[in-house]
Amino acid sequence: MRDKFKKRFGKKFFRIFLMITALAIIPMVMANYFIYYRYTQINDKQNAEVIENMINQSDYINNLILQDTKEIMKQLSTNKLVVEWIINPDTKNENHIFDIINELKAIAESRGHITSIYIYNTHINKVITSVGGVYNLEDFYDKSWLDKSQGILLGTRILETRFVRDGYNNQANSITLMNNLLYGSWSNLGRLIVNIDANKLYEKVSKLHNDKTGRLYVIDNKGTIILGNRNDLYKPIGNETIIETILKGGKGTLTESYKGGNQKYIYKKSIYNNWHYVWVIPLKSFMQSNFVLGDNIIIVTLLGISISFIIAIFITNHIYKPIKELINMVLQRTSGDRDRQYEKDDYKLLNEIYDALMEENSYITDTLERQKPLIKESLFLSLLNGKINTEKEIKENLQLIGLDFYKEAYGVIILSVLEKKDDFDKLQEHDKNIIKDKFIKCNEKILYNLGYQNVCIEVAEDTYTLIISIEHLVAETKFNENIINICEYIIKYGLTEFEFKIAIGVGNIYKNIIDVKESYKDAKKSLKRKVYEKDREHKVENKESLYLFELSIIDKIIEEVNNNEQNKVNTLLQVLEANFNKDEYEDEEVAPMFIKLFTELEQTAIESEMDPAQVVEGGFESVDVNRLLKKEGKRYLVQLVTKICNNIIVYNLSGVAEKQQKRMEQMLKYIEENFHKDISLNDLADYMDLSFAYVSRIFKEYTKVGYVDYINKLRIDKARELLDNTELTVKEIGFRVGYNNMQSFFRTFKKFNNLTPTQYRDKNA
After folding, report:
1. What whole-number distance in Å separates Cα of residue 198 and Cα of residue 160?
2. Residue 165, in any domain of the structure
3. Does residue 454 form part of some domain?
4. d(CA 312, CA 643)
5. Residue 238: pLDDT over 50
6. DSSP assignment of 486-514, as one string?
7. What residue numbers bound the domain in which 488 lies?
8. In angstroms, rounded to a whole number, what is the distance separating the alpha carbons of residues 437 and 170?
9. InterPro entries in the record, alphabetically (predicted)?
10. Is the pLDDT of residue 465 over 90?
11. What is the Cα–Cα distance from 147 to 754, expressed in whole angstroms?
């Protein structure tokens, strides 16, 4: 038996057959395994990111409702009835209290998610509620918020989700928001409290999701289920450390075995309040597409192995037999021409079998081709969010999707759709996706036509990101010069073609593709500050406004300093400090603002003829903004600005009238001596060594007319004197009083006298 086996499998024919079969099967099996492995990796990551995006949408809707509530609170805090009751409460004035209750009730009813509103006066310890009635604080049924109301509230504080009881001893799971009364002040006169029904908020959030793919739960910082069925979430979890991980972590995924299967937990902590979102999904459902692809690859692999056997048999027959005949011919020393026709037929047959094999494997190629858009979107989302840390991984994925994106510099532009056409929300989901896809391709085309390789993806609902690669440093300079025109073109195209109103945030340019995430952060900050927002009425003037902190408040501060309005200046500076507390500004963001502010204050002090040492110790040269920001912080700089402003105002008020009178006399004398020359308001400001804005303001205050009208009247008065007392020609007189254009001289003269110069001379001859 052994000899028989050895004889059969020791033949050259069988050895050649095994070798050819192995050469055909092994690469195919390895390729299929690699495709399946890469696909499952990408698919798992993509599915997790899809669910994370759904959680982000939930969080975004939650934030919209909270922001809407904050806006309502801000408006209510400045309501005349509320302010009057806080500042000067009259508990006997029932009509006043009744009007406040009706106002609160109307606001609560206009927003279905608001359950109740309280106004608490700390001076008289009384509470007015939207459900009706005025209560002494000690008798009030809901006081659990009181401990959290201590201290100064410059903004709106969101409390831990809590159970709120009403006057009928009913309780509801609520989110409570609280702010100071008066709003934004340092006073401690009262509090405004608004309770939102958390269950209604959960209903709005959960409508986004499909129960077939999983369930969404919300838990608080203690692990208590706020929204959702407690048993459904906690029963499957056998390990308590999972909940601890969810509470400690910002976001992530976990897998737990349950009843013979696996459950996947995708969790994320809200950036807006204390909620932790947990999405629970059966792993079988999560991996469904992986199973489908795995089944298809197994079928294709088995089919390929079968074809490989057939090919191996045919090739072996047509290699082994000719070689055997050739050996026989040599041994027998025979000669003659070999008929090679059958050899050509063999190669033809081999080509046909190869073509058949490639046709079968084309299914895998088509599957991969269909997945390329998803792979591209997943790749760039990961790049933006900093989930890819090596260039090697980026290169591998770019090669997989066949995208040439490696250049010398990279940047990011974020497009946020603020408004859509009225009928957009009425469209079917399929039609919406078609429009979105067209919008993405149009933005890519705009940048591509301008010479920039780019990729546009949707990162969130109504938010799109353009990742741009720039070929060389010259192109980078050109990009920076043209960025405003590029943004305006995108905005105009979005408005005309899609009826989308768009806000744009632009990130800085970076040299390494890994740093695309940094440009994305820059763009998000730019968009958050709303420093580039354009519609039909608004236009951005310069590129710096794309990156720097909004500087309009500086102009208001300087204006009030010049007006000697100390209270208004202090209020503006309090608003500035409140903004710093509310938003997490980096030092490099606010440094330009402080530098500009100190420069403007120095100019104001110079115009007031102040000694710099009177304004700030050591003079303005001693104020190193960057050093003070790092050492003392933003609050110290605001206090320093307040001190400087107060010093300038006190100095001005001590003798402002006398100083300004003296300056006006100098200005009028200069004009009297030079009116016949072409002197502008800028020339006058340069002569006085004062700013253009300051000269323009005080000139109009004292003369009650603008500079142009004043100098024209002076010139025409001199022209009348020359017409009455000399025989100079009209043209000579026009030149002598400062008019180089006779048409302008005639027009101005007639404006003041209702006669031309010639008519005036003839009339008074």
Report:
1. 11
2. yes
3. yes
4. 92
5. no
6. HHHHHHHHHHHHH--EEEEEEPPPBSSGG
7. 404-538
8. 49
9. Homeodomain-like_sf, HTH_AraC, HTH_AraC-typ_CS
10. yes
11. 77
